Amino acid sequence: MSETAPRRPDAGRRGLPRGPLPALELPIAAGDEPPFLRPRTRTRVRRGRRGWAARTLLGLQLGGVAIAGLAALWAAYAQVMGSDRLRVARVDVRGSHFLSEGEVRELLGPAVGENILGLDIEALKAHLRASPWVADAVVRRTLPDTLQVEVRERVPLALAEMERLYLMDAEGTLIDIYGPQTAGFDLPIVRGLAGVAAEARRDRAARAGALLQDLGGLSAEVSEVLIEDSGDLRVVLRGRGEVLRFGSPPYRGKLTTFLALRGELAERCPRAEYFDLRFKDRIYAKEPLGAPAGGGAPAPALPSPDGGAPAAAAAAPPQPVEPAAGQGRTL
């Protein structure tokens, strides 16, 4: 027996068509809920407002948490800063030759015993640079208790003649007064710095420092350096006391050549006021006016000790060296 759709019992009597009932379709827009599932008006649920007591209580709770956190941080900070393991117990000094370790400690101030994390490194550098002996300084922390100090000192090259004698470096910086504590320095004296303006004094001192620095080990042969108003340098040698006149650098090669010919020059020009080394491959002897020029014989060229060009040419210079003050000889 086959299953058929149910029929209404009164379908035939009322003249209605026999068969299954048609499905009823309602127009529902996409995404909308069926109308019989939605209420006609939505009901808003309002949160109940907290009273002033509840808000005050919440503020007190948050404030208590913040205070407790700050207190914990402060306690940890105090414990770290008060730790004996982080107190400076050692100062490692490097690069110090003229200053002793004790003098470097004095420049640092009361750093030993202080907490290493609380030290002002820039202030310590400033204290070290305040010394005229210190050109630059580097300070580092080495946990837990060591302070490393690296010092770059100024190197004295000469004694600057001012109202007193001062130790001077290659840059013309005055380092310290020459006295009992610095009497161990056997250095040439630089003259021509007193009685001039500060800028001119620095320029003159820098020229003298450049000369001595270029000479290097040969500066031990120099007794005095005089800076002239023209910028030229008059150098007095140790021993026989010969006076040399220099112009622009380089200086070392010219002095080396002169020292190689020193004995022969002394024999041929015993009355020379100075030897002029401002010209290339030539040495001029400045003698007093009226002095005999080597017995009347012309001075031959002197060979260079390095096998190069002769130290002096036989021809006279285009212009004689200071003819009004005396006579010049080409060697």
Descriptive account of the structure:
The protein is elongated and about 150 Å long. The protein has 2 domains: 84-153, membrane protein fhac (Ubiquitin-like (UB roll)); 158-330, Cell division protein FtsQ/DivIB (Rossmann fold, 3-Layer(aba) Sandwich), CATH 3.40.50. The chain has helices at 52-81, 101-108, 121-129, 198-215, 252-260, 262-268, and strands at 90-94, 134-142, 146-153, 158-161, 165-168, 174-177, 189-191, 222-227, 233-237, 243-246, 274-276, 284-288, 326-330. Helix content is 24%, strand content 20%. The model is unreliable at 294-327 (pLDDT under 50). Strands 6-5-4-7-8-9-10-11-12-13 form a 10-stranded mixed beta sheet, covered by helices on one side. The termini are far apart. By secondary structure, the protein is α/β, with parallel strands linked by helices. It is built from 6 helices and 13 strands.
State the domain count. Answer: 2
Tell me the structural class: alpha/beta
Biggest sheet character = 10 strands, mixed
Q: Separation of termini?
A: 150 Å
CATH architecture of the largest domain: 3-Layer(aba) Sandwich
Kindly report the spatial arrangement of strands forming the biggest sheet.
Answer: 6-5-4-7-8-9-10-11-12-13
CATH class (first level) name of the largest domain: Alpha Beta
Instruction: Assign the CATH superfamily of the largest domain.
Output: Cell division protein FtsQ/DivIB
The number of E-state strands comes to: 13
* SSE string: HEHHEEEEEEHEEEHHEEE
What's the overall average pLDDT, rounded? Answer: 78
